[in-house]
Design goal:
Helix 3 crosses helix 4 and helix 5 crosses helix 7. Helices cover 22% and strands 32% of the residues. A hairpin with a 5-residue loop joins strand 10 and strand 11. The strands form 7 sheets. The protein has an 8-stranded mixed beta sheet with strand order 6-5-9-3-2-12-15-14. The protein has a 5-stranded mixed beta sheet with strand order 1-30-24-25-28, with no helix packed on it. The chain has 551 residues and is of the alpha+beta class.
């Protein structure tokens, strides 16, 4: 007879989903998906250096019009390139050296032909003029587009949210995460009496002759396209500073006037503690030059770089709920902590392909427990991470298919956090673990990265081969099972897993004793702990998300 102790997450017990924006599951990919997700020669031929996005919002008509200047460096000789703009938006014209360029459209891709060869290493530019009614988000931020609504006083309340769907849903750009623009000027024109808050720092406000006001925001650091945001409302502003690792960091807050006092209290209680915790674990806030902002939005929240979108209604938890079920999640504002955590993982370190969005979400979900650890202790943090298991579905791989603009399973959030906590347990050295987290943000500062970049860095600096561990948890849905069997009176064990050459150190003890590390392989080997039997063996399943099979 076999005794099974398989620790598997329960699906469907938590109805609240904490993720940012994910697309609809898709099994068959089209030419349009490849045009969006693949880095073809028509996209890699130029490196984006600078954008000037200049857009006017006609809120009554839900219509936008404007232009985007593309300034780039040629990475090879070419006469043709691709940029991206959703097909429901009209390309009015493409201007190069004062002349109109010919172009062709295929789905959401636009192909421009130049009158001469653009030579490798040269710097050049062109401007796209466009207009139309952008996609209206039905349930932002989970589906992309523009949110058009009103505040409780009936005044316009507008915001963009486009992760997953892509920034080209509302403005023309090279819409691929692998190439972040080095800097951008965002000029948003809105009806008089309203304010636009975008990323970076406000350079200038101009009253236009047509009854509109233009707000010019400049981002001095590299930024991924989906982070570029417009937030339009009758905002009021208040500010503070934080004494951080790189000096004084400006913190600015833009909220609806009738929420001002609530915002001062909620932001005051959460922002500086969050910054202190994350700078301790991850290193300096990555965008001192652009400052830190929270902007009230009509949707729940998004990690818009240096302008974090906030819609958690000034309450702790996730809309008042604790996603871990432990109580620890109700002691802080989920959206402030989670979305700000993305400044390090997602914005500072960005995956080249959306298939590796686990790099954004796994580390950021895990950052919540580190915040808890700073203020409530390590035991509380471990309890919080363990509680997240209830939301793991194990339905499909966390790493998605490459080159088709498709992310993997939503397990990238909770299972990603649980995986990282388990890796910390394997390393068993909190100083080294903190050095790894800070080292990631320093080594890949303002860079786009691959799966191999992150997994190899963690494995190399851990001093333990963690590549099979990442492989098993990120590419497969089944949990590795630690199987025990008694052979000639001696307890033996092995790992049963799908990842090639899977090995993982794990903590085990005689019940009531101290945990000790063993490192099983694919073949049965004796468990070298004095006095251990199948009846007395106890595996650390609190920190290890595994199955246990005792025969």
């Amino acid at each position: 007879m076999k005794l099974y102790r398989l620790f598997v997450a329960l699906l469907g017990l938590v109805s609240f989903s904490a993720q940012a924006q994910l697309g609809v599951p898709k099994a068959i990919f089209t030419r349009a998906d490849s045009l969006r997700g693949n880095l073809t020669p028509l996209r890699t031929c130029y490196d984006i250096n600078y954008y000037h996005l200049d857009v006017k919002f006609d809120i009554d008509k839900k219509f936008i019009s404007g232009s985007n200047l593309f300034r780039f460096t040629a990475t090879r000789n070419f006469t043709r390139l691709q940029f991206d703009l959703f097909a429901n938006l009209k390309v009015e014209k493409v201007i190069y050296e004062g002349k109109v360029l010919p172009y062709k459209r295929e789905f959401n891709a636009v192909f421009v032909t130049f009158p001469k060869t653009i030579t490798k290493g040269s710097k050049d530019e062109f401007t796209v003029y466009y207009s139309g009614n952008p996609t209206i988000a039905k349930h932002a931020p989970w589906d992309g587009g523009v949110v058009y609504t009103t505040d409780s006083l009936g005044k316009p309340f507008v915001a963009t949210a486009c992760q997953g769907m892509g920034a080209s849903v509302w403005w023309p750009n090279k819409d691929h995460q692998a190439d972040e623009v080095d800097s951008i000027l965002i000029s948003i024109s809105v009806p008089k009496g309203l304010t636009d808050v975008s990323n970076g720092r406000l350079r200038k406000t101009t009253q236009l002759n047509d009854g509109y006001t233009r707000f010019d925001w400049f981002v001095a650091n590299p930024i991924n396209n989906y982070d570029v945001a417009a937030n339009i409302a009758d905002y009021v502003h208040f500010a503070d500073t934080y004494d951080g690792e790189k000096g004084k960091l400006t913190t600015d807050f833009w909220v609806l006037p009738y929420n001002l006092e609530k915002a001062k209290k909620q932001f005051g209680e959460n922002v500086k503690p969050m910054l202190k915790a994350f700078e301790y674990w991850f290193g300096p806030y990555p965008f001192y030059e652009d400052g830190y902002k929270l902007v009230e939005t009509p949707h729940l929240g998004m990690e818009h770089q240096s302008a974090t979108a906030y819609g958690n209604h000034y309450m702790n938890g996730y809309l008042g709920h604790d996603l871990s079920g432990t109580g620890w999640g109700l002691k802080w504002d989920y959206i402030i902590v989670h979305e700000s955590g993305h400044e390090w993982f997602g914005n500072n370190i960005t995956s080249k392909d959306i298939a590796d969005m686990w790099i954004h979400e796994g580390f950021t979900d895990y950052s919540e427990s580190l915040f808890i650890e700073n203020y409530y202790g390590k035991t509380a943090a471990l309890e919080y991470v363990h509680g997240l298991r209830v939301s793991i579905a194990n339905d499909s791989p966390i790493v998605g298919p490459y080159n088709v603009n498709k992310e993997g399973s939503e397990d990238m959030y909770y299972k990603g956090a649980v995986l990282l906590n388990m890796i910390r347990a394997i390393i068993n050295d909190d100083v080294k673990w903190r050095d790894i987290l800070r080292g990631l943000n320093k080594t890949f500062y303002h860079q786009t990265v691959t799966y191999d970049d992150i997994t190899k860095y963690v494995s190399d600096h851990a001093g333990v081969n963690l590549l099979p561990v990442f492989d098993q948890y990120l590419h497969y849905t089944t949990l590795p099972v630690l199987e025990f069997v008694t052979i000639k009176g001696q307890l033996n064990c092995r790992w049963v897993a799908e990842a090639k050459d899977f090995m993982m150190p794990v903590k085990i003890r005689v019940k009531g004793g101290e945990y000790k590390f063993i490192t099983p392989g694919k073949d049965f080997a004796p468990v070298k702990i004095d006095g251990i039997t199948k009846d007395s063996a106890e595996v650390d399943t609190f920190n290890y998300y595994i199955g246990v099979l005792i025969d």
